[in-house]
Amino acid sequence: MMWDYKQIRRMDFRVIPVILALMFLGLVVISSFSTEHPLDLIDEGFMTPMVRAQLKWCILGWGVYFFFCGFDYNKLREWVWVLYIIVLFSLVGLFFTDPIQRVHRWYRLPFIHISVQPSEYAKLAVVITLSWFLEKMKELSSQWSTAIYAGMIVGIPFLLILKQPDLGTALILFPITLVMFYYGDLHPVLVKWMSTAGACGLILVTLIFSGIVSHEDMRPYATKLMKDYQYERISPNVHHQKASTTAIALGGVMGTGWRKSEFTAGGWLPKPYTDSVFSAFGEEFGLIGLLFLMSLFYSLIYFCFQVTAAAKDHFGRLLSAGISVYIAMHVLINVGMMCGLLPVTGVPLILMPYGGSSMMAAMTALGILQSIYSRRFMF
């Protein structure tokens, strides 16, 4: 049976209050910073137009979540190439549309007045496709040909997303691929090289952003591999990065209070209810609020990896591992960006920012995890 409502009763109900809390805190930030004039906040109350719009996405997200909870994740094998090809066509099609904010990332649907970002769904499609392929090639996992084909499955959408350009979304595919290659028992030399390359890249970025290595001193070497404007994107001195750390610092221990911020409300922090929601929340609720927020994310990620440990088959284990890393990397990269430890690359937090594509992709992923968890004792 493809869908069974009885499976919903077997899911991990501890996750639900965590998701609800993260959604609510996201609405709190959106409500605080979604009007241009402070007097509008008095007239609107909590339910600003953007809060009402986001609330609709939250409700739709719960519908998708419970649908995939009851959906048999094993049936995804039958749809894997259809999903993958649709995603590839949607990524290619972006380059034949008018750019939005000078980049090719969204389809603007005129009749329903919403924008769809295919790259958010591409990450999930890659996880599903790679899980199916690695399960199918389990007996040949140590051969280099398997690694090459697996690399192509990830590489094609990676390059298309990078071309948009969307460096942050493209780079999230790297740790997802690394973990899935490890769980898929691919050639150990490849996994070691990928781990080494990832660690070296992370150490270098950390040295630059901590001030130990000068950003300008690295320019002659870096520009041999990338263009100058691309290297500028990983500068620790961009306005967005400085504004993010300043907003968090101004929050202090207790925060300024809801709708009492001056820095973010004054327009100094870019995108306070999308990419910078962590910093905006930090200014209003301080260190105490951020610790509470991080405890929610820790709980969510912990529950995700518990599914990987409980999965009953190789496909479910690969699928849950990929989704868990997908969730974790969104949190780690965004928090790292806002704290000045990583370059600002446009990676949003999970469940909190304003927008539909990120919300729907995350709730779909979490619903698939629950499908795996609820069927952990079925043979």
Largest sheet: 2 strands, antiparallel
User: How do the helices and strands follow one another from N- to C-terminus?
Assistant: HHHHEEHHHHHHHHHH
Low-pLDDT stretches? none
The percent of residues in helical segments reads 55-70%
Mean pLDDT: 87
Figure out the total of helices: 14
Number of domains: 1
List the strand order in the largest sheet: 1-2
Kindly report how far apart the N and C termini lie. 14 Å
Structural class from helices and strands? mainly alpha
Count of strand segments: 2
Q: Give the overall shape, derived from the CA principal axes.
A: globular
Strand content: under 5%
CA-based gyration radius: 21 Å
Description:
Helix content is 64%, strand content 2%. It has 379 residues and is mainly alpha-helical. The chain has one domain (5-186, 238-374). A two-stranded antiparallel sheet has the order 1-2. Helix 1 (15-33) runs antiparallel to helix 3 (49-70) and helix 12 (277-310) runs antiparallel to helix 13 (314-338). The longest helix is centred in the last third of the chain and has 34 residues, at 277-310.
SSE arrangement:
Layout: H1 15-33, H2 38-44, H3 49-70, H4 76-93, E1 107-109, E2 114-116, H5 118-136, H6 144-163, H7 167-183, H8 188-209, H9 219-222, H10 228-232, H11 239-251, H12 277-310, H13 314-338, H14 356-374
Antiparallel strand pairs: 1-2
Give the structure's gist in a few sentences.
The chain is mainly α and 379 residues long.
